[in-house]
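Quick one, T. Sequence first:
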Amino acid sequence: MVIKILFLVLFFAVMITVGFLCRRQADSVHGFVLGGRNVGPFGWRFGISTTWVGIGNAVIGSLLAWVILGRRTRLLTQKLDSRTMPDYFGSRFDSGALRIAASAIVFIFLIPYTASLYNGLSRLFESAFGIDYVWCVLIMSVLTGVYVIAGGYMATAVNDFIQGLIMLVGIVLVIGAVLKDNGGFMQAMNSLSVLEAPSNPGLKGAFASFLGPEPLALFGVVLLTSLGTWGLPQMVGKFYAIKSESDISKGTLISTLFAIIVAGGCYFLGGFGRLYGDVIEYGANGNPVYDSIVPKMLEGLPAIVVAIVIVLVLSASMSTLSSLVLTSSSTLTLDMILPIRSKAGKKTEQKTQMLLIRLLIVFFILVSAVIAIVQVKSSVTFIAQLMGISWGALAGAFLAPFLYSLYGKWVTKASVWVSFICGVGIMAADMFCNFTGRVFINSFFASPINAGVLAMVAGLVIVPVVSLLTPKPDGKKVDEMFSCYDRTVVVHATTALGEEQKED
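Structure tokens:
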């Protein structure tokens, strides 16, 4: 217990110190939001094949995202002076209504996402320290709020870097410890190979196979968790704050390697969850309590490994939590409250804007914490499904119009509206059907993951079709926006060959 507490105190001390050291970068709205432009249920279901999700996250969600979105996002958002995704849509399509609608979607659907993070994190703390779940949620809420409110984006970015280093080391140690606990890699794989797949009774070896017991469902998870990140405001936000060209290359390389090790390692670790089926918790419906799987996997490990795991999971969760609360609060302030006040003829000073953002950070954290507590302390079980629904709604609404509008001048305002409605509508229908016991389309799409993939694909089809059928945008305005891509930049020959001179 002493080792666990020491690790925890050191971690919190570093995070909060960074928050206060970064206060000078957060003395304006621009600096607070962008840093001044300077900067296990899948494993249970799919077995070892869930590692493909981590690989997809690295290749699609990181490498391709940086290559396809990074540079163009930075150039166009700087041209439009956009600080958030709703702000981008409002400026790109000259529509205040689009800005407000996008802001509402972000705020509504990021709350349950955050609540689900509190849930998993607090269960681990409850298991390791014997602290009541409610107190765990409250402690996490306060600590996240302190360093985000103090330092804004720069504190979040610096802490993300520190937390990333912890995750890199931690995941390697944890995988090694869990495999050793199961007799080594070969013995663990052998143990998985004798288990039957519930989705196909009598089939043995599926959990140790290349594609697992449900390849189509696995493909859906890879798509939503990898391609879907291209439409998540908190993920795309990192491209807004790119400082220079060299940072794009560094960011692409570092984030991809990081994703391969951490995301790939986490999903690989989760693939062995089935080996602990006799000790994990089960709900009244007979299904596992997924948040209990990893804590049960770790209970028998040495204290030093458990302490590392606590800091590892805390790092991953607080990294995501901080980006979520900052994204949601800044979006609501900059894209909804300020435009409404402006329309009413009221001017909002910088200090007032900063105060609003910080107050909304507190509000967002409180609401998320309350949802997380209600989920565990009551019979309201459907809240657990809201993370998948949140991800699907955001990716379904934003991915297609954001991606197409970075490259195409032809994207129309009407197509963006249809994408918003379609993405949110599909996920709302899926949630309603799950809550009332009805079937959404068919049993395959009853899963929020598969419904989210449907929402994404629908948007990718709908935006070009609706753009073809609706009035074209103002050509002069769009040309002016896209002029940022035509700017001539002089570089060294080591970066671009250019035209070689012919010798006489």
